[in-house]
Write a structure and sequence with these properties.
This protein is an alpha+beta fold and about 350 residues long. It is built from 11 helices and 12 strands. The structure holds iron/sulfur cluster (2 copies).
């Protein structure tokens, strides 16, 4: 690991150099909400946020993505075109440690299980530059799930705000190479800088007050699948799907061909889907194995805390708190998991 400092006053010129060589995606504020957007200038970046409204997963696994286009050439042939990959390297700057951890899980799903070429082309060309949390939100609980405000899992580089400067850590070879590429902007970090970084991380960690008792959840859930507990929890759910669309680890999608009868061309589109919608599991016969909101809410909790842990030995939740902050019916996944421990099988 390489540890260096960059002065805050040098960031505008640092970014003016980066933008020449890389496509930059960074948090941008709009009407009090924060989104990762392509930026052309350092002044567009907003760094005073707890976490972005939408997780940066959307840069690799787009909400709507054209997989291919097709055009009728003759009565017996169709021309198919696949969108070209963007070759210029990208930097995702300012990603929070919980979201970086979620990308580790998405890498497992999209790159290890079955390789997804659309995800791979964007992911392999992107450097993940994290930003330690200094002001976690009231709903954050990453520390209950193996994360932390300055956790480096999934990152290539981590920036931590230590007053006049950022403490910069090259986490892996990719990150260290990047630091060397722009070495004129960095100075070596001292032991005192290191202590400041630890103190910032410790302070942020103490601000995280919500806790999830997740350790035994996998086994607990095995015992209470048929419990009325799920019916009770699902009573308030209106099936809006917000919890899934804003979740950094949710990755379900639907694919359909769009054209119209009068047209000789069209496109195959992939769009995010949500397991909280009744159509999600509806089969062509009309049968639906998850016909009620109880079935769907229960599935969401099991997916995060039972199925993914069984299949991949990690939780399917990184504790970002977005589903808690944004559920219109105040359904709280921490309470659901914690209270499940008390349910009798
Ligand atoms: S955000 Fe809340 S109300 Fe909407 S689907 Fe999720 S749990 Fe149900
Ligand atoms: S389940 Fe909720 S808290 Fe966990 S990662 Fe998804 S949005 Fe964040």
């Amino acid at each position: 690991m390489k540890k260096v400092l960059i002065k805050k006053k040098d960031l505008p010129s640092f970014f003016s150099q980066l933008i020449v060589r890389y496509r930059i995606f960074a948090p941008v504020e709009k009407n009090g909400l924060f989104w990762f957007r392509p930026i052309e200038n350092f002044t567009e970046i907003a760094l005073d946020f707890s976490n972005s409204t939408m997780p940066p997963k959307a840069l690799f696994f787009q909400q709507t993505e054209t997989l291919l286009t097709f055009k009728k050439q003759s009565s017996s042939s169709i021309k198919i075109e696949i969108p070209a990959e963007k070759n210029k390297m990208a930097i995702l700057f300012g990603i929070r440690p919980c979201d970086a951890k979620s990308i580790e899980l998405l890498d497992t799903i999209f790159l290890k299980d079955d390789e997804d070429p659309y995800y791979r082309s964007k992911r392999k060309n992107t450097l993940l530059v994290g930003l330690s949390c200094i002001r976690p939100s009231l709903s954050c609980f990453c520390t209950s799930l193996g994360g932390g405000p300055a956790n480096t899992d999934g990152l290539d580089i981590l920036f931590t705000d230590i007053d006049e400067s950022f403490f910069v850590e090259g986490i892996n070879e990719k990150g260290i190479t990047f630091i060397k590429e722009f070495i004129e902007f960095f100075t070596p970090a001292t032991e005192e800088d290191n202590k400041k970084r630890e103190s910032v991380a410790m302070h942020a960690q103490k601000m995280i007050t919500r806790r999830m008792t997740a350790e035994n959840t996998e086994k607990t859930l095995d015992k209470i699948f048929e419990s009325s507990y799920w019916e009770k929890n699902a009573q308030r759910c209106i099936g809006c799907g917000i919890c899934t669309f804003l979740c950094p680890t949710c990755h379900c999608f639907d694919i359909h061909d769009e054209t119209n009868a009068a047209s000789d061309h069209g496109a195959r589109i992939r769009v995010w889907d949500s397991c909280m919608y009744p159509e999600y599991t509806k089969q062509a016969s009309g049968y639906n194995p998850r016909p009620t909101r109880m079935n769907r809410l229960r599935n969401r909790v099991y997916h995060k805390f039972n199925y993914i842990p069984k299949n991949h030995q990690v939780f399917g939740c990184v504790g970002c708190g977005r589903c808690i902050d944004n559920c219109p019916m105040a359904i709280d996944i921490i309470d659901i998991v914690n209270n499940a421990q008390e349910v009798q099988s």
